[in-house]
TrEMBL record:
InterPro entries: Aromatic_CoA_ox/epox (IPR052703), Ferritin-like (IPR012347), Ferritin-like_SF (IPR009078), PaaA (IPR011881), PaaA_PaaC (IPR007814). The lineage of its organism: Bacteria, Bacillati, Actinomycetota, Actinomycetes, Micrococcales. The gene is paaA. It is an enzyme of class 1 (oxidoreductase). This is 1,2-phenylacetyl-CoA epoxidase subunit A. GO terms for biological process: phenylacetate catabolic process. It comes from Agromyces mariniharenae. One of its GO terms (molecular function) is phenylacetyl-CoA 1,2-epoxidase activity. One of its GO terms (cellular component) is cytosol. Keywords: Oxidoreductase. The keyword Oxidoreductase applies. PANTHER family: 1,2-PHENYLACETYL-COA EPOXIDASE, SUBUNIT A (PTHR30458:SF2), PHENYLACETIC ACID DEGRADATION PROTEIN PAA (PTHR30458). Its EC number is 1.14.13.149.
Length: 327
């Protein structure tokens, strides 16, 4: 619903009020908002921020694992890891496309990332010193991503929700391949078991931080929930994730590195230690183990890809010219 350009201020206000009522009605019915629909500016901005951050996370998230493609212990592992990293590139591209339907250009988003102005998930600023990190990332990081993202398949904004459906299918494959890497290591030598446990120790807390700050320190959550973008609070999702991990850790034979982790019958939830948010904030502020390295690599990749963008633009130009000549 778009306001005709020649409307007076008064009738434009009237138009916006009617459009807002229609928007509110769609949200109340748990229906979908599509790119052609009128939407409040704050809703559009929130979505652009969330979807572009999500896209950047997928793209930066390729780095910690691509680091291991050449060193994967077998041809089979190499093929699986390559497919997984390639999936993450695809996720980034679906999500950039979804954000573009909200009126932001892909180049603008890319530039924000390259300039270090855009956020992406802090988790990708940790390093991957051992092969077991590939297992721990798949099991814990992709696992946390699934918990976060399955409810997003029902996000009120159509293009985002639809992108998430496809992404979640691939994320569950990622989680299983990570679990399977750890399982194989846990059934191996003492050194392999130690390597797997060490990776779980390093990734467990950062993966819990992926759900964001505690509910009482998450000011934007309530609005996102009212708009049906978010369906569960950060703490609810974190609980759900830990509940999923505990039985899987038992099958693996790994210990989750929290001495206070215990089922609380009364609350019907897990008790756990306090999360070290100072660490989270340090990484968020750019002082994590690999923040500078991740951005440097992204800039390099962007520069290396300049000729591809130029060639694609030139090809598109020639195609358009040819079509014009035929018409
Ligand atoms: Fe992904
Ligand atoms: Fe993934």
């Amino acid at each position: 619903m778009t306001a005709p350009a020649d409307l007076s201020v008064a009738s434009r206000e009237e138009h916006d009020e009617a459009a807002q009522a229609l928007f509110d009605d769609l949200i109340a019915k748990d229906s979908r908002i599509e790119p052609r629909d009128w939407m409040p500016e704050a809703y559009r901005k929130t979505l652009i921020r969330q979807i572009s951050q999500h896209a950047h996370s997928e793209i930066i998230g390729m780095q910690p694992e691509s680091n291991w493609i050449t060193r994967a212990p077998s041809l089979k592992r190499k093929a699986i890891l390559m497919a997984k990293v390639q999936d993450e590139a695809g996720h980034g591209l679906y999500l950039y496309s979804a954000a573009q339907t909200l009126g932001i250009g892909r180049e603008e988003m890319m530039q924000q990332l390259i300039d270090g102005k855009a956020r992406y998930s802090s988790i990708f600023n940790y390093t991957t010193p051992t092969w077991a990190d590939m297992g721990a990332i798949g099991w814990l990081v992709d696992g946390a991503a699934i918990c976060n993202q399955v409810p997003l398949c029902r996000a009120s904004y159509g293009p985002y929700g639809r992108a998430m459906v496809r992404i979640c299918k691939e994320e569950s494959f990622h989680q299983r391949q990570g679990f399977e890497i750890l399982l194989e290591l846990m059934q191996g030598s003492e050194a392999q078991r130690e390597m797997a446990q060490d990776a779980v120790n390093r990734w467990y807390w950062p993966s819990l931080m992926m759900f964001g700050p505690p509910d009482d320190q998450s000011p934007n959550s309530a609005q996102s929930m009212a708009w049906n973008i978010k369906r569960f609070s950060n703490d609810e999702l974190r609980q759900r994730f830990v509940g999923m991990l505990v039985p899987q850790a038992e099958v693996l034979g790994v210990t989750l590195p929290d001495p206070n982790l215990a089922w609380n019958e009364e609350r019907q939830a897990y008790d756990m230690s306090e999360i070290d948010w100072t660490e989270f904030n340090e990484v968020l502020a750019g002082r994590g183990p690999a923040n500078a390295e991740r951005l440097r690599r992204r800039r390099e990749a962007h520069d290396d890809g300049a000729w591809v963008r130029e060639a694609a633009a030139e090809y598109a130009r020639k195609q358009a010219e040819r079509e014009k000549a035929v018409a």
